[in-house]
Amino acid sequence: MAQREKRLTKRERKALTPGNHQHQAQHIHCISCGRHLDPEEFEGIPPNAIVITCQHGSRFPACAACEVDARARVAEHDRTGQPPRTAGAWH
Ligand SMILES: [Zn+2]
Ligand SMILES: [Zn+2]
Ligand SMILES: [Zn+2]
Q: How much is the mean pLDDT over the chain?
């Protein structure tokens, strides 16, 4: 299972395009729709983006608007042990 989590991380890394972002260290995308999320979006009131923690403690970012779908993906991941189906990253 640890290896599957690793594969997801590698995929996340591949989506990372260096150069164009000032916030490379926190380059994150919604798992549900693939939209780019800025760190500030997690801090808004109400937040524009949320982090969903799965039962193994992995953290998955999502738009607040995508919460229902994102939670369903994480719940499926918890049920099946497979990496969550994540949308392709876009900007
Ligand atoms: Zn989204
Ligand atoms: Zn991005
Ligand atoms: Zn997990």
A: 84
Distance 26 CA to ligand 2 centre (A): 9
Using the 8-state DSSP alphabet, how is residue 63 labeled? E
Please tell me the distance from the alpha carbon of residue 63 to that of residue 73, in angstroms, as a whole number: 13
Question: Is the four-CA dihedral 37, 14, 75, 58 of positive or negative sign?
Answer: negative
CA of 74 to the centre of ligand 3 (A): 8
pTM of the model: 0.71
pLDDT (average), residues 66-83: 97
Closest residue by Cα to residue 8 from 24, 36, 35, 31: 31
Among all ligands shown, which has an atom nearest to the Cα of 50?
1
Counting ligands in written order, the one closest to the CA of 23 is 2
The Å distance, Cα 60 to ligand 2 centre, comes to 14
Asked if the model's pLDDT at residue 26 lies above 50, the reply is yes
Phi-psi region of 14 (alpha: psi -120 to 50; beta: other; left: phi over 0): alpha
